[in-house]
Write a structure and sequence with these properties.
about 350 residues; alpha+beta; Glutamine Phosphoribosylpyrophosphate, subunit 1, domain 1; eight-stranded mixed sheet; 9 helices; 12 strands; binds aspartic acid
Amino acid sequence: MLHRRNFLKFGSIGAGTFLSGNLFGKGYPAPGKKPLVIATWDAGINANKNAWKVLRSGGRSLDAVEQGVMTTESEISCCVGLGANPDRDGHVTLDASIMDEHGNCGSVAFLERIKHPISVARMVMEKTPHVMLVGEGAQQFALSQGFELESGKLSGDAQQAYDEWLKKSEYKPKVNIENTNGTAFAPRKLSNGAWNHDTIGMLAIDANGNLSGSCTTSGMAFKMRGRVGDSPIIGSGLYVDNEIGAAVSTGLGEEVIKICGCHLVVQLMAAGMSPAEACKAAIAKIISRNGAKAKDLQVAFIALNKKGEFGTHAVQKGFNYAVCYSDDKNELIDSAYTMK
Ligand code: ASP
């Protein structure tokens, strides 16, 4: 565990970094509340609604984060699940992870034709002695647990985006960087006008003060076949320590894996940082590792601590997240970011 004295020496970051700027994004007060659920991107609004149903009735945060992101997995023309962007060979391959208040965790990677990877990840956690299943083995396990094999056909939006990409077939995977005109590189605009951002990550604290997290994604659009990002890697795309806090990430997974991002964010909270400070410090590490190349990538973390305080930070402008902590509070908020 990092101690406060040591975290000040962390990378090239000093305490002054955390005292300037708006750490919470657009003046948001980051209330310490429970129960509370927080999720990445605008798809988080719908996902939070179902998570909130669990939390408001006194349910467990683990059920909330599973049911919350299942909402997004079901929105076939949305950002994750079977309606998402395919790999460069035209197949949708899915990654997901889940972690509970006891430090139990499960994940799946490179899973095809299964509608709810998050529920398969939960079954890996609860019904096997393992943490992670991949590819054909993950699919076989899902089928053995009663999941149906869905058609491998791309959704209309995904087919259109793939056909467009095939015209040049350039292998330049970029994730979630929106420019100031609101257009984006890899994320696609859906026929319903929403943006596709490839990942939903969700963290929740329930009425008993227990923390859980989930993450589900199709990964990077038009990725190499077999590529797996941060989302199913426990400690990279998701981490929960029920005594301290939880973190989940979105963006260029390779950069998150290289710093064990979400574990780092939780350790920084353990060392005394607020959720927003911890996210900002982890983002600073990614930026300093990448130098000038940082302007071409996007990564964002969200974090929630044991008091129900939350915070986020992104490399670039454009990341937003949804927070819900009452029947009439489910808001989309622009995240703080570093690269101006
Ligand atoms: N983090 C995901 C990945 O690298 C992608 C995303 O968040 O959009 O697979």
